Amino acid sequence: MGKKKETITIYDVAREAGVSMATVSRVVNGNPNVKPVTRKKVLETIRNMGYRPNAVARGLASKKTTTVGVVIPDISSAFFAELTRGIEDIANMYHYNIILCNSDLKKEKELRLIETLLEKQVDGLLFLGGEVTDEHRDIFAGSSVPIVLAATYDDEDESRPYVTIDQVQAAKDATSVLIEEGHDKIGLIGGPLTDPILGYPRYQGYKEALEEKGLPLREEWVRLGDYRYHSGLQSAKELLTGDEAPTALFVINDEMAVGAIHAAQDLGKKVPDDVSVIGFDNIPLADQVRPLLSTVAVPMYDIGAVAMRLLTKYMNDEPIQENQVLLEYRLELADSTLTKETQTG
Amino acid sequence: MGKKKETITIYDVAREAGVSMATVSRVVNGNPNVKPVTRKKVLETIRNMGYRPNAVARGLASKKTTTVGVVIPDISSAFFAELTRGIEDIANMYHYNIILCNSDLKKEKELRLIETLLEKQVDGLLFLGGEVTDEHRDIFAGSSVPIVLAATYDDEDESRPYVTIDQVQAAKDATSVLIEEGHDKIGLIGGPLTDPILGYPRYQGYKEALEEKGLPLREEWVRLGDYRYHSGLQSAKELLTGDEAPTALFVINDEMAVGAIHAAQDLGKKVPDDVSVIGFDNIPLADQVRPLLSTVAVPMYDIGAVAMRLLTKYMNDEPIQENQVLLEYRLELADSTLTKETQTG
DNA sequence: CCCAATTCCGTTATCGTTTGCGAATCAGTT
DNA sequence: AACTGATTCGCAAACGATAACGGAATTGGG
C-alpha cells in the first residue's frame, strides 16, 4: 500500500525552497504578505515534493478544524438521508467536512457521540431529531462551540438555535384536508406520544383539527406505530376492519401511510374512494406508489441546508438576524385523497 | 452559548492532581502502569475540572486520528444510505468516526475530497461506487493510509482491496429467471454503459444470459436510464408500446423497476400476467409497492460493514486472509414475476 | 535486612503547524 | 543621502497531547 519513506513537512519544503517555514505557511494559507516570485517558487517546490499540509497540526495550532459534527437518528431513513444531503452540500460549499454519527435516538449514545465530537474539536455541531434533555443541555453549556438543532427544537431553552417546521400546524392542516373533504370519521396512525419531536406534536395537530371542527376524538380510531411500513400496514388493518371504520386516515409519516394504503387495498377497499389517506414528510416513496400519496411536503433538504448555513454563521461570527427558523411546508395533494389543491403553511 | 473562560489542558489536571502530565495521560488512555489510588485521584480531578482530552493534540502526537474518510456518490440514495449505515455501525463498534463526503460520481470532486481527507490524516479511507482512474491510483499510491473499495473494484489494480458482489453473475441470474419463466422477449432497462460499476456489468450479465440461452439481443428492447424512478417509467413506456413489445423486463435497479411497473399499469397491462418485471438491489421500496417487486437482493448493509471491518484490520495491522471479497446476493422472487423460488449466488 | 526485580511516575523531546513580533529590504520623498 | 512607511520574511514560542527513557518507590525472596 505504497509506504512513503517519511512524511514531508512544511519544514522540508522551506529548506528546499530556501525560505522559512513561516513563508511556506503563508503561501499555503493564501496570506498576501509574500512576494509573487517567492510564492511561485514555494508553490513549485510544494508540487515537486508532493507536500500535503497536515490538517491535524494545523488544527492544533490554529484551533480550527473546519469540521463539524452531525448527530442524526438514522442515516438509512429516507428522511434523514435527504436532510444530511442538505447539510453536506452546504458544508462542502463553505469548506467544512462533516463527521456523521447515528444515534438511533438513544440518549446515552447521543451523549457519548456529542462528547466524542467535542473532543475531536469540531468547529460546530448539528444535532438532529432527538429530544433535548437536561443532560444534553449540560454538555452544550459546558462547551463553547456553536450548536444548532435541526428538525427538532429545545422547548426548555428559549435561546437554542434551531431549524424545523411547525409540526403541530402542519399536522392540523393535513387533518383539516380530510375534514374538508367531508369526512367525519378520521383515524390516526401516529408515533409514540413520548416522542416530543414527531409523535406528540403531530398527534396534537390531529387533535386540534378535530376539536376546532367540533369532531370527537375517538380512541378506537387511533393507533400508534413505529414509523415503519409494516407498522402502518398492521395499524391500518386494525383500524379498517372495525365495526365503524374510519373513512379517512391521517398517517404521520409516509412510510406508514403507504403501508396503510396497502392495508386498505388488501381489505378490498379503494383509495381514495372508500378511504382517503394522507401522509407526512413527502419522501420519494410518496411519488412512487399508486395511488400517488397525498402528504405534507417537508423541505428536508432545506432544513439541513439552512441549519448548516446558520451554523456557518455562528462559526464565522457573522451577524445573525434569525436564529430560530420555522421553514414553510406544503400540502401535496395527490391521488390518495379526493380533493386536489395546494396550500402553503 | 456558554463561553468557558479557557480550555483546561492535561497540564492543568496534572498540577491540580499533584502528578505529572504523563500520569494524567496514562490514566486517560487506560495505561495499567498507574497505582489505583493515583488513578482514582486523577479521575476525580478530571471530573471536577470537567477536563475533556483534545483529540487533535492527541492526533498530532500519536499520529492516529481514529477517524476514517468515506467517499460516497450520494447519501440520499437508499442504496448508499443503507451501505453507509453498515459502515458507521462497524466504525462505531471499533471506536472510529467517519467523515462523510458526497462525490456525485464526479471525478474531480472525488479527487479533491480524497485529498482533503488525507490532509485530515484519516486512519483509513473507504471509497464507494465510483470508477477508479489513474489519477485515483496516483493519490492512493502516494499515501500510506489503507484504502478499501466498497460496492466497486479496481480492474487495473489487482491488489486493491474491495468488497462488492458479482454484478455480472447477479444480472445474469436475474435475466435467467425471466427466461426460465418462459419469456423469450425480454427487455432491459439499464444504466449508462459508461458506468463501469453498475451500468456496464449489469448489461453484460443480461447479454450473457441471453446468449447462453440462444436468445437474440435486440436493441429495440434495450433502454438506458439514469437510475431514477421517472427514467424507469419513461423507458418502460417506450418499450411496452412498441409493436412487438417485450413480455418481461430486467431493470437494473429497483427505483427504475418500480417506475416500469407503473408504466405497465398505466398502459393497462397487468404485472406479472402481461409483463414480468425483475429489479435489482432490494431497497426497502421493493417491499413497499404492489405487486411486490422481484429483485436481486444486494446485501447493502453488509457490503458497508464488511468493508469497514476489513479496513479496521488494515488499520490495526491484523492478519488479513481475504482482502477482496464478493458477498453473496439472493434472488428475491415476489409478485412482479411469475415463478416463486429463492436461489443464492 | 539487603538487593534485585517490578511498578510507578516524572522529564523531556516531539508531532507539524500557526502566528506575533521584530528585522531586513525596498521604494518613494525630501 | 537620509528618512519614512510599506512590504517581506525569519525566529521562536505556542498549541495540547504522546511516549521513550530513566529514576524513585515498592515489593519479594533468601
Search tags:
homodimer; disordered N terminus; alpha/beta; 434 Repressor (Amino-terminal Domain); 345 residues; six-stranded parallel β-sheet; 3 domains; Rossmann fold; elongated; DNA-binding
Distance between the termini of chain A: 56 Å
Beta-strand share of residues of chain A: 5-15%
| CATH architecture assignment name of the largest domain in chain A | 3-Layer(aba) Sandwich
Largest interface: A-B, 61 and 62 residues
Could you say what the CATH topology of the largest domain in chain A is called?
Answer: Rossmann fold
- Assign a percent range to the helix content of chain A: 40-55%
Average predicted confidence as pLDDT of chain A: 93
Q: Tell me the CATH superfamily of the largest domain in chain A.
A: Response regulator
Rg of chain A (C-alpha, Å): 26 Å
Which H/E pattern describes the elements of chain A? HHHHEHEHEHEEHEHEHEHEEHEE
Largest sheet of chain A: 6 strands, parallel
How would you write the strand order of the largest sheet of chain A? 2-1-3-4-5-11
Number of strands of chain A: 12
Tally of separate helices of chain A: 12
The oligomerization state is: homodimer
Count of individual domains of chain A: 3
Secondary structure category of chain A: alpha/beta
**Level-1 CATH class name of the largest domain in chain A:** Alpha Beta
Give the low-pLDDT segments of chain A: 1-5, 341-345
InterPro entries (chains A, B): CcpA, HTH_LacI, LacI/GalR-like_sensor, Lambda_DNA-bd_dom_sf, Peripla_BP_I
GO molecular function (chains A, B): DNA-binding transcription factor activity; transcription cis-regulatory region binding
Keywords (chains A, B): Activator, DNA-binding, Repressor, Transcription, Transcription regulation
Protein name (chains A, B): Catabolite control protein A
